[in-house]
Write a structure and sequence with these properties.
globular, about 35% helix, Alkaline Phosphatase, subunit A, eight-stranded mixed beta sheet, five-stranded antiparallel beta sheet, 15 helices, alpha/beta, about 400 residues, 2 domains
Length: about 400
């Protein structure tokens, strides 16, 4: 038996007036996901337990069968695992975003949580400078991808209250700066980084090119190293993770999955969809299980771009779901599931915690006979799953 989980990050949404009251999933052309929904089991999955933030870290951990109430210790340490960063028991990892800020009437506002989707190469140059300047203060900076990086605070504190920058697009940042025990150090680092970034050649080049600049670092998502058993030991499958982002790749590392690096993946609508599908099918020649994650719908939701979110979902359906559905048939018995981890509505530009639609095909499940893959059609079946462990066991066994 071969298993494939295909995650379109943030595909869920709310009804949108300009789409005639439809959600993006209802409006987008998704014949492959519609086929899975109509001919397999469709329902809703509560990927985010009560009391936990509706982020991809918690939700994707749940999709892979790990109850966040048992295993979640923070977002940054998962991403650190993807980068090969070894955390000591007393180390605290922080997610370090490059962000663009606006100054108006003496107040700073979050203009862009991604610094214009700064390139990985540019981000690495800035991180190298920050590590050189601040490594004598008990912290180290590690380059990730694009605007997403990691800071490790040796013997640090994980108590500060922090806020994801994509939750406050267009808002004043003062009320969302780190607060609580240990926050003073974080604020000093953020304030100290700003003038260094402002005068760096990377930002001078971006300014001349009319691009958003990396005006500041934003520290959040902190935690200590997680302790997770492998998927093979828990569920008996040996598999791979394919994603453009360190978070999902880090989850793959923690779950004992092989992380496959696909050339040309970006985490946005210009990613290498065909490469992801091709590498996934190749991996199934020797593995039981593959998880393919596409970040683009989520990024479009955070940008508030309805056009890009429709494009991202339609590309996910046509260039990931379709080829995997067709290619996996050669292996004989198979199961394929499509779902999103959480909604990212374009009108509010951040995550929400509603249950997400899932659809799975390949086993002897009774067809749902719904019209297609969407929030409303999934809800119409009356099937609601809410246990991470039971959800993955149902799919795998």
């Amino acid at each position: 038996m071969k298993y494939a989980i295909l995650i379109g990050d943030g595909m869920g949404d709310k009804p949108i007036a300009s789409l005639g009251g439809k959600t993006v999933l209802e409006h987008a052309k998704t014949p492959n996901m519609d086929f899975v929904a109509a001919n397999g089991e469709t329902g809703l999955y509560k990927s985010v337990p009560e009391g936990y933030p509706p982020g991809s870290d918690v939700a994707s951990m749940s999709i892979l069968g790990y109850d966040p109430r048992k295993y979640y210790s923070g977002r940054a340490p998962i991403e650190a695992a993807s980068l090969g960063i070894k955390l000591e028991p007393t180390d605290v990892a922080y997610r370090c975003n490059f962000v663009s800020l606006d100054l108006s009437a003496g107040k700073f506002y979050m203009r862009d949580y991604s610094a214009g989707h700064i390139s990985t190469e540019e981000g690495a140059r800035l991180i190298e400078m920050l590590d050189d300047k601040f490594s004598n203060r008990g912290v180290r900076f590690y380059a990730g991808k694009s605007y997403r990086h990691i800071m490790v605070w040796a013997g640090g504190k994980d108590a500060p209250k922090t806020t994801p920058p994509h939750d406050i697009s267009g808002q004043g940042i003062r009320d969302y700066l780190p607060s609580g025990d240990g926050s003073d150090k974080l604020r000093v680092l953020m304030e100290g980084a700003a003038p260094l970034l402002r005068q760096h050649p990377v930002n001078e080049e971006r300014r001349l090119a009319g691009k958003n600049t990396a005006d500041s670092i934003w520290l959040w998502g902190q935690g200590k190293a997680p302790s997770m058993p492998t998927m093979k030991s828990l569920y008996g499958v040996d598999g791979v993770m394919i994603s453009a982002v360190d978070l999902l790749n880090g989850l793959g590392v923690c779950a004992g999955l092989e992380v496959i690096k696909v050339p040309g993946v970006t985490g946005y609508i210009d990613t290498n969809y065909e490469g992801k599908a091709s590498y996934a099918l190749k991996a199934l020649e020797t593995k039981d299980f593959v998880c393919v994650h596409v970040e683009a719908p989520d990024e479009a939701g955070h940008q508030g771009s309805l056009k890009d979110k429709i494009t991202a979902i339609e590309d996910f359906d046509k260039r990931i779901v379709g080829p995997v559905l067709e290619g996996i048939k050669k292996f004989g018995e198979y199961r394929v599931m499509v779902l999103c981890d959480h909604p990212t509505p374009v009108e509010i530009k951040t995550h929400t915690r509603e249950a997400v639609p899932y659809a799975a095909i390949g086993a002897k499940w009774k067809p749902s006979n719904v019209k297609g893959y969407s929030e409303a059609e999934a809800a119409s079946t009356g099937i609601v799953r809410d246990s991470a462990e039971e959800f993955i066991k149902w799919f795998l066994k």
